[in-house]
Design goal:
CATH topology: Rossmann fold
Strand content: 25-35%
Number of helices: 6
Helix content: 10-25%
CATH superfamily: Class I glutamine amidotransferase (GATase) domain
Largest sheet: 9 strands, mixed
Shape: globular
Structural class: alpha+beta
CATH class: Alpha Beta
Distance between the termini: 37 Å
Strand order of the largest sheet: 1-3-2-4-5-16-15-12-9
Radius of gyration: 19 Å
Number of strands: 16
CATH architecture: 3-Layer(aba) Sandwich
Length: 261
């Protein structure tokens, strides 16, 4: 049978060598589901942190809805993702290797669930393009439902019927990029008002050549047997803003990320 202490030490060594840290565990009596938060691409806002911009509140909501929450600072590959039911990539600053992008798409093809939240789009642009999602080259400036007189911060009220918007009437964003679904497998979940604009020449002024329209801020889609959702903002689920409708939205996200039976 072997020494049980040695077996335990070997098991711990395997977990650590994989770069996987289980931050929280759900009720042992429930079906085990794992959501993996990527923290290997320069993320400043993390699951274990309890600061205003960290994600411990969202992680707690995932736990309450039956997930085991794990984090990883290693490069994404098939072995890492074989332990996950859902993958969350929030606030990445460092680019993803092409091999990582391919591992994520294979994960989706097998039926995995993916959530991407953008702080800046550049590190994730190649992966999003593979999923059929494009991003703007500037953040959205809204002229409706503005928060604290800052056009970068606004309330989103134009929501489409979707599992993500169940019992939701609005939510707040704090610096969102516009999204565009590039194929028939993506759908808009939430969008701005019709007079929102993107400063295409980055001069800080609304000019004739700037883009003025209703922009998508959340899109969802299918890839293989899996599903993904992309948020144009990574702040809406940070601790400081994880309240009210944003917390309801986080609960919907946790439920939606559960794999299909």
């Amino acid at each position: 049978m072997g020494n049980p202490l040695i077996r335990r030490a070997v098991a711990v060594a395997v977990i650590l060598s994989a770069g996987l840290f289980f931050a929280r565990t759900s009720d042992a009596g429930a079906k085990s589901l794992t959501v993996l938060f990527d923290e290997g691409h320069g993320q400043h806002f993390v699951v274990a942190g309890h600061g205003p911009l960290d994600l411990s509140g969202l992680a707690g909501r995932f736990e309450a809805q039956g997930f085991r929450v794990a984090t990883s600072a290693q490069q994404i590959d098939d072995t890492l993702l074989s332990n996950a039911d859902a993958l969350v990539i929030s606030g990445a600053f460092a680019p993803f290797a092409q091999s990582e992008n391919e591992a994520v798409t294979r994960f989706l093809t097998r039926g995995g669930r993916l959530c991407v939240m953008l702080h800046i789009p550049q590190p994730l642009a190649p992966l999003l393009e593979m999923l059929g999602v494009l991003t703007s080259n500037g953040v959205i400036r809204e002229r409706e439902n503005v928060i604290d007189v800052d056009p970068l911060n606004f309330r989103v009220t134009k929501l489409e019927p979707h599992g993500l918007t169940k019992n939701l009437t609005s939510f707040d964003v704090f610096g969102a990029w516009a999204l565009l679904g590039g194929n028939d497998k993506t759908t808009v979940v939430a969008r701005t008002g019709a007079t929102a604009w993107v400063d295409l020449n980055h001069d800080g002024e609304l000019q004739e050549r700037d883009a003025v329209q209703s922009f998508a801020v959340v899109v969802a889609g299918r890839f293989g047997a899996g599903s993904f959702v992309v948020f144009g903002d990574d702040a809406l689920f940070q601790n400081q803003f994880f309240k009210g409708n944003n917390e309801v939205f986080g609960g919907n996200l946790a439920e939606w990320l559960k794999p299909a039976e």
